[in-house]
Each structure stands twice: as structure tokens, then as C-alpha cells.
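Ligand-bound model needed. 6-O-phosphono-beta-D-glucopyranose.
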Amino acid sequence: MNYKGVIFDLDGVICFTDKYHYQAWKKMADDIGVYFDEKINNRLRGVSRMASLDIILERSEKLYTQVEKDILADQKNELYKKLLHQMTPADLSDEVKSTMDELKNRGCRLALGSSSKNAKLILERLGLGEYFDAVSDGTNITHSKPNPEVFLKAAEFLDLDPKDCLVVEDAIAGIDAALAGGFHSAGIGEAAVHEKVDYSLHTFADLLSI
Ligand code: BG6
Ligand code: MG
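Prediction:
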């Protein structure tokens, strides 16, 4: 690994909170009678809460005011947070933890780069509250992925140049953000087939071969 820093996305990379996002959005969409499925859910990866809601409401006949949208987003988030409380350190896979530990042993500095405003709660649930050298999340940005802000902040918190950092992402929007910020990127899941990704990972542990 020739990178001084590695910046990890959270949802879909370190843990699988994407299923809880889906359940919570699905309940909200059902309540207001708007069609929502896993395919639409895939478009929400890496996208902020309010931008996600706008994508879901593309299928709505009714136009919602900002106040109504804030209420819907709050309802979704309350249910999502309830689901997050089911998580324990057992939801962190051995592969993810041992790979990150090995990167640390090799002298890499590790950061989180997540659009989520719940990132710190999730890290606590996973037992990673104090683990990362820096945490950049939805609470310190104004533009979500594909804007590079969340990763640029992570690099700044690590005191490293983007060119010295590798971004690890599962979302197309996340790889676009890494590219826009001048980072190299490693894609897992659907992001592994992004045409401009630098490294395609089959498993998380493949990071150790870069
Ligand atoms: C990202 C997820 O990590 O966080 C998105 O991939 C989600 O699906 C976004 O919308 C915002 O999350 P939160 O927890 O602030 O609603
Ligand atoms: Mg993700």
C-alpha cells in the first residue's frame, strides 16, 4: 500500500446499514402511498438524507412543501435510529476489522468519509468509537457525494494531500466524489465496476494487495 491514508465510506463498506436505510424509507414510502423498491434504493447510496427523499418523491403525485419534507425525513430517521440500536460489535465482520488493523500496522492513517449524520452513532454501536484517526461525516459538510467535500475534509483532518489517500467506496456517487477530489479510489460491490475506479475489490481484504 503506497498510500499514507485510507478513507472509508461507512454504509455498505464497513457495515451493512444500507438494509436499515431501505426498511426505514420503505415504511415511510408505504405510509404516504409512494412506490419504492430496492432498485430505487440503490440510487440513494452515498446521497444525503434530503436528496434521498427527493429521489423517493419523484414517484409522488403530490408536491410536498419543505416543512412536510422535513417531517417525513425526521420520521424516517427516527425509525432508522431505532433499527441502528439493534446493531452490536458483532455486526462488524472479522474481515473488515482485521484488514483495517493490518493497514494501521503498516503505518496507514485511517479516516471515515461518510455522508451520514448518524455515522458517530453507528461507529459507537460497532465498537469503533475511538478507532479512526479522523472522522468526516454528514455533520461537517454542506454538499454530499458526488461532491468531494466529505473526502476533502477527511484528508484535511488527516493532514494529508488527496493524492496520498485512497478512498474505499461502494457507491457510484462515492467514486465520482473521489475522482472529483483528486483521490485514488477502490470500489466494492456496484462501485467495483465504475469505469474510472483505480482498484476493483472482490473482497474487503483485497485492500491488503494494493
Ligand atoms: C450514506 C448512505 O452513507 O448516508 C445514504 O449511503 C444515506 O443512503 C446517507 O442517505 C445519509 O444518511 P443519514 O444517516 O444522515 O440519514
Ligand atoms: Mg456507501
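The helical segments are 18-31, 38-42, 49-57, 66-84, 94-105, 119-126, 149-158, 172-180.
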